[in-house]
């Protein structure tokens, strides 16, 4: 059985790690390379960097960060934000990223997923999704860093994206993001039933029990968290020990 993964997430803005609640009210929490090295030494399994305000001008900043991180950490890491073409993805992979996440650009042009997976392999293509529950049930997918409701049904989008070559899904619940109230188990279970690629649960981790719960109750293969790790509320080691005690396969 594949071991479950603990994945700290570093939201990056202007070359700094930031954290917010429900995608707003951002505060600076440090240097991304220093944070990456600390997490690597603490025993995390992977890292995710999301440039949340990625623009063309910011690309050089991000590439420089990726090169510096690749020199410091020796675990897989994913980079996302502003990836709009196979050429953009190629730049990130050449700089040292193992995987690249696409979100808004893939919604605007789903064939971007096919192009990237054919060029670099589906294992390099992570589909990042920001989703929110609708009043009528189900979930809609949001674009532009969670600012724009696309009106697209979540389950339809994941099926289409995986058929085009997305090799992994990073699924963020906007309702849960930053709230520390636990992962959106209902949404994760629905997506797990819809497709058979690895799914990283994101949004809502507030304590170790939430991470144990998401692995016990859904088929998520990774749990992503930010605040609880950034602010030292729990450690990677404590989290993994609790998972092992619950009978979850994990790399100690």
TrEMBL record:
Active site (catalytic residues): 11, 130
InterPro entries the UniProt entry points to: Aldolase_TIM, His_biosynth, HisF, IGPS_HisA/HisF, RibuloseP-bd_barrel
Catalytic activity: 5-[(5-phospho-1-deoxy-D-ribulos-1-ylimino)methylamino]-1-(5-phospho-beta-D-ribosyl)imidazole-4-carboxamide + L-glutamine = D-erythro-1-(imidazol-4-yl)glycerol 3-phosphate + 5-amino-1-(5-phospho-beta-D-ribosyl)imidazole-4-carboxamide + L-glutamate + H(+)
EC supergroup of this enzyme: lyase
Record-level Gene Ontology MF annotations: imidazoleglycerol-phosphate synthase activity; lyase activity
Any Pfam family the entry gives: His_biosynth
GO cellular component: cytoplasm
Keyword Lyase tagged: yes
GO biological process, one term: L-histidine biosynthetic process
Protein's pathway: Amino-acid biosynthesis; L-histidine biosynthesis; L-histidine from 5-phospho-alpha-D-ribose 1-diphosphate: step 5/9
Principal cellular location given in the protein's record: cytoplasm
Coiled-coil segments on the chain, per record: none
Compartment(s): Cytoplasm
Assigned keywords, A-Z: Amino-acid biosynthesis, Cytoplasm, Histidine biosynthesis, Lyase
Protein EC: 4.3.2.10
Family, as annotated: Belongs to the HisA/HisF family.
Subunit structure and binding partners: Heterodimer of HisH and HisF.
Function description: IGPS catalyzes the conversion of PRFAR and glutamine to IGP, AICAR and glutamate. The HisF subunit catalyzes the cyclization activity that produces IGP and AICAR from PRFAR using the ammonia provided by the HisH subunit.
Protein name per its UniProtKB record: Imidazole glycerol phosphate synthase subunit HisF
Gene behind this protein: hisF
